[in-house]
Amino acid sequence: MAKLQPELNEFFSETDRLLHLMSSTAEIDGVHRKVIAEIVHLRLSILLENNLKRIFSKICCGALYLDGSVPNLIVSHRSMVQAEAAMKTLNRARNHRPKWNDSPNIRQSLEHLIHPNDHCITSVRNFGSHLTDMRFIRNHIAHRNDGTRDNYKKLIRRYYGASVPGISCGTLLLSPRVSVPPLIEVHIRTSRTLIKDLTKA
């Protein structure tokens, strides 16, 4: 039977490295530290998306939560490959594309596989705003186009209380005006809490 412990262990090990990296840059020049913060955020986003995909795929195969409880499945699958295919096609007129950094999309991906009242669905719903913030920053770091800029401006208005121009992603992630500890650390630790809650660790 598939187990969720490897994903929890891997995620905490990798994010320990990210936390250590950020703490080791405290004395580095601000411009370079902002670039490092953006790279760390991209790495965190990839780790989170990949682990969410694997965790949900394993749950769809009947993996127990880490407290020993059983997920409430609508239909169980024999392999992660089958589960991932079902997320896209089961009971759908058109193929669905799972996006593992978008809470509503994740829930839609699982609507025919896991009962809507199951713990994992509630968990990903509760962390929806965190996933949205992560996605807006990640996309703007990676693409920096008009679409990503519009969403990024929403975060700037929320964190700064106004449409402040010239705020880079690195500045947002490190500014004490936005958060103490810095937002990059908050995102790492909140992502760890998400994975821990999701797996009932």
UniProtKB/TrEMBL annotation:
It comes from the Bacteria. This is RiboL-PSP-HEPN domain-containing protein. It comes from Magnetospirillum gryphiswaldense.
